[in-house]
Amino acid sequence: MSEPVDLTICKADPTGTETVPDTHIHITAKLPESVARADWLSHLAAFYNEEARQLEEALRRVLPGGTYDRLLGRMLERHASLYRIPYQIEETRPETED
After folding, report:
1. Closest CA to 62 of 5, 28, 15
2. What does the pLDDT read at residue 50?
3. What distance in Å separates the CA atoms of residue 59 and residue 38, rounded to the nearest whole number?
4. How is residue 9 annotated by DSSP?
5. CB under 8 Å, gap of 24 or more: what pairs does 18-24 form?
6. What's the DSSP call for residue 18?
7. Rounded average pLDDT over 18-27
8. What is the pTM of this model?
9. Closest alpha carbon to 7 in 59, 48, 54
10. Is the pLDDT confidence value at 39 over 80?
11. Residue 77: in which H helix or E strand, if any?
């Protein structure tokens, strides 16, 4: 069994009179049982979208801009193969005799 992960990350500096709250993100919940429903795919997509929205908003509010930007870059880099689009499709043509 994996050990729990405990991270301490720097938060952004306050700007003007705005404070940056200490933020604790607990990733402990299980996926909902409702994934067994007939429309599970659309339900699951909505569930993941909401989870991602909440996590992104929390991180955007409290991380320094440099950390937030680099996190996005690292996440895209990790999944770069999902975003590769061929610019040229090679065609295989039978050779013809002259």
Report:
1. 15
2. 94
3. 34
4. -
5. 20/61, 20/62, 21/62, 23/58, 23/61, 23/62
6. B
7. 94
8. 0.72
9. 59
10. no
11. helix 65-78
